[in-house]
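User: Fold this; tokens only.

Assistant: Input:
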Amino acid sequence: MTPAPSEIGLLAYPDVQLAALYGLADLFFIADRIARERREAAGPLLRVSRWECDANGRIHNRDGADSAIPSMIIVPPSLAKPPSEAWTASLAAFLRRCHAGGSVLASVCIGAFLLAETGLLDGRQATTHWSYADDLAERFDKVRVDSAKIVIDDGDIITAAGLMSWTDLGLKLVEKLLGTSVMVETGRAMLVDPLGREQRHYSVFSPRLNHGDEAILSVQHWLQQAYAGEVDVNAMAAKAGLERRTFLRRFGKATGLRPVEYCQQLRVAKARDMLETTRLSFDRIAWNVGYGDPVSFRKIFVRTMGLTPGDYRRRFGAV
């Protein structure tokens, strides 16, 4: 039986870049067709919906299902300067509601400004076009802007750089939802070089966020920022407002992982990014992601990735 398709919502707003809006729809259509052929699926595996925000801040789903929210929402780039009009407040409120309901949020270029309006980027790394990086950092001083990266995947929020990086973001989402091989074939079909993402020969940690347990979801969002701190099960349970035993049961049901396993996955994902994009020693990386004992974290990394940190960097390091 074909599973229910993952829905990706594309958000149209005043002065949105139409090439990105329609290009992403085409990319996901091609990826879905490839995946269906490979799996001999009877129905679609990806579904694209179109959401519109007008100049008065009114938001609606062109498909008419306004009560539902998609698994992912993409805020495409714009051909105009970073917006500051009144409608952005309504859009930010809408994005916050979707995120609280489990939607993964993504942006391209100036779309990062609209995500930053929600406050959800506070304390996180984000990227945008290099020429707007200083503006983003000045307007939203709690956001850690890194314009050197094309895509920053922070689990529940993903940002991409300049106008044409919608192709990078699209392939990243295809990889997360349909796997590396479908991503590579989609890139080939579109004549978009996917080699930068071929490095993802191992599964990317994509935490479950649409399970409907608001208490557990609040802990997941908190852990996404606090992964390097001293966070234990009792602190997580307190954050969720639950007794320890109840928290453990509900966390396992919602995420499919024990809290310790979940935190290890988050830290390994952060370590992978540092191995790929910096020349920091693994001891320093271990410390940065919250492990005082590099030997212990090395064992966790090898068990999770099937490669030593050195081998991983030699294969996938970009610097």
